Amino acid sequence: MSSPALRDLVAPVMEANLWVQASRMTGYQGRNLACTGFGRQSVSITSVAVILDPSALLYVTSKRKDWL
Fold it and tell me: Where does the source fall among the domains of life (predicted)?
């Protein structure tokens, strides 16, 4: 077999391997590093609040200014 033919056979396997490795890197709530208190309910609730509060504030502010 020629080099280009072998490359065409191996490329999909390499791409699949990279995809699997990349999907393993994504951690809890999109974070790649574990935070202090990982697995505790209070930390999970705080983390969700930190993510949702600015989003809600942005939505309310945009609605008040009639941007939405």
Answer: Bacteria
